[in-house]
């Protein structure tokens, strides 16, 4: 089973979560092991603030179900029961589909190996998502030079409107 999510502090929920396995999560391990190891989207801790404390809610909570449903509709939470293919007994392959909405940052990948309902091994790795090229230039300009960026954007809008007026006017 492979899970991917951005690194976070203890109180944040993942902005992106993908769970891939070579078969249905329900058949990998017993319920208590799945909950303890956070196998599958239904068992991942989604901490929320309850008064002055932070806690995870039960899997059947209506807020949690709606939250997971909305994230899943946007492609930010995914679970693929056939997402891992073993090429040899020690080598596997999976694809991690990233929607355009994912945030930049470092994403943790947790790999867990199960056999007969027991976890044999686990390892962690990470990958980073960054903006590059023109998109990064625009993002930097907007953050570092907000006034100039705003004036340039307004000027471009005015020029576009003026050009449209010239091209489409009826004399």
Give a quick rundown of the structure.
This protein is α+β, with helices and mostly antiparallel strands and 171 residues long. It is 32% helix and 31% strand.
Describe the overall structure:
The protein has 171 residues and is an alpha+beta fold. The chain has two domains: 2-129, no CATH class; 133-168. The chain is 32% helix and 31% strand. The chain is built from four helices and nine strands; from the N terminus they run E-E-H-E-E-H-E-E-E-E-E-H-H. The strands form three sheets. Strands 5-2-1-8-9 form a five-stranded mixed β-sheet. The protein has a two-stranded antiparallel sheet with strand order 3-4. A two-stranded antiparallel ribbon has the order 6-7. Strand 3 and strand 4 form a beta hairpin. The chain is elongated, with a radius of gyration of 23 Å. The termini are far apart. The model has no long low-confidence stretch (mean pLDDT 85).
Q: From the helix content, strand content and strand pairing, which structural class follows?
A: alpha+beta
Please state how the strands of the largest beta sheet are arranged side by side: 5-2-1-8-9
Overall morphology: elongated
How many DSSP-defined strands?
Answer: 9
Please specify the SSE layout and strand pairing.
Layout: E1 2-6, E2 17-20, H1 31-37, E3 47-50, E4 53-56, H2 62-73, E5 77-80, E6 84-88, E7 91-94, E8 105-115, E9 118-129, H3 133-144, H4 146-168
Parallel strand pairs: 2-5
Antiparallel strand pairs: 1-2, 1-8, 3-4, 6-7, 8-9
Give descriptors for this structure.
two-stranded antiparallel ribbon, 171 residues, alpha+beta, 4 helices, 5-stranded mixed β-sheet, 2 domains
């Amino acid at each position: 089973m492979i899970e991917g999510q951005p690194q976070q502090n203890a109180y944040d929920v993942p902005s992106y979560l993908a769970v891939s396995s070579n078969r249905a999560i329900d058949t990998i391990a017993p319920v208590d092991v799945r909950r303890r190891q956070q196998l599958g989207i239904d068992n991942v801790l989604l901490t929320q603030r309850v008064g002055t404390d932070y806690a995870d809610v039960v899997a059947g909570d209506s807020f949690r179900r709606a939250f997971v449903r909305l994230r899943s509709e946007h492609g930010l939470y995914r679970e693929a029961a056939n997402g891992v293919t073993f090429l040899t007994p020690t080598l596997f392959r999976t694809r991690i589909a990233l929607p355009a909405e994912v945030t930049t940052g470092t994403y943790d990948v947790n790999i867990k190996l199960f056999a007969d309902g027991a976890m044999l091994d686990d390892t962690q790795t990470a990958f980073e998502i960054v903006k590059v090229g023109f998109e990064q230039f625009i993002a930097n300009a907007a953050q570092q030079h907000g006034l100039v960026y705003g004036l340039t954007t307004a000027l471009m809008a005015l020029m576009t409107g003026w050009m449209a007026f010239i091209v489409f006017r009826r004399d």
